[in-house]
Design brief:
Radius of gyration: 22 Å
Low-confidence stretches: 1-8
Number of helices: 11
Order of helices and strands: EEHHHEHHHEEHHHHH
Helix content: over 70%
Shape: globular
Mean pLDDT: 83
Strand content: under 5%
Strand order of the largest sheet: 3-2-5
Amino acid sequence: MEGENHTSMAQFILIGFSEDPSLQPILFGLFLSMYLITVLGNLLIILAITSDPHLHTPMYFFLSKLSFVDICFTSTTIPKMLVNIQTQRKDFSYSECLTQLYFFMIFGGMDNFLLTVMAFDRFVAICHPLNYSVTMNTHFCSLLVLVSWIIMFCVAMLHVLLIKLLTFSVGTKIPHFFCELVQLLKAASSDTLVNTICLYLSAALFGVFPATGILFSYYQILSSLMKMSSTTSKHKAFSTCGSHLCVVCLFYGTGLGVYLSSAVSYSADRSMMASVMYTVVTPMLNPFIYSLRNKDVKGALGRLLSRAISFPSCICDL
């Protein structure tokens, strides 16, 4: 098929998980349920943190931002996939694909940055507790989040502009359920050397360095915990750090699985399943991990739900 530059009429064809009509209702129900659980769980975390003054601390400030980003991260891929399953359509316009890629990279990168910042927050709180309130002040926390947004807006735009320089065949088939950068580079019919170099540089800068920072923070935290004599302090520190560490392992483990599976022995099905883990399963599990392992969050959720239950009865009394 003849290669040509993209125009607004160009389209991709997303293969998805299965072309078997009997499996479509099952896939639709499964992903719809997971999406609703993700949105509801993260929304409850946000509401609990914003409504409870006891949780107006840097740690929970970053957690509320992480929950918001997780909702947006999942919303860039799942709703479109559900529409495609329901309408039995696999075509995806060029502009839609680039828009999805742009926001997917922004929210995926923000997940990465926020997990790193949360590790730094725990490092300061445990290793330098006397300077915590001065270091992690409101302005500094807001600045960290703002700078992270600006960086990801710029990096995502750079990748999108480089993609626009590539050439694709008309009706290019992508063996995935969303427009992922790696899959687009594999489907291109023109040279992708510059794009690949940019991809690896981005992976090093925004993957390896943050992961190294998280590992260093937890090494310092562990060293400090070993020196603590108070069992209560140790237990509280392990409680807050354990939740974050579980989320970090889920995010980096599943994300790394996508690219390792592609590099070692590429399989479209395996790549899609790994992508489901870090785009759907991880954001869905995050609220449960934080709420089940954190007494403060559980207490705030309990108070939020009790107020929600008592609200209709108050209206009836009026």
